[in-house]
Amino acid sequence: MGFRMGPLVAAMMEYERGAAQRINHFLKVYSFAKLIGEQESLAAPVQETLEAAAIVHDIGIRPSLEKYQSSGGNFQEIEGPPVAREILTRLGFPDGMVERVCFLVGHHHTYRDIEGEDYRILVEADFLVNLHEEKADKQTVLMARKNIFRTKAGTKALNDLFALPG
Question: How far apart, in whole angstroms, are the C-alpha atoms of residue 111 and residue 82?
Answer without folding.
Answer: 21
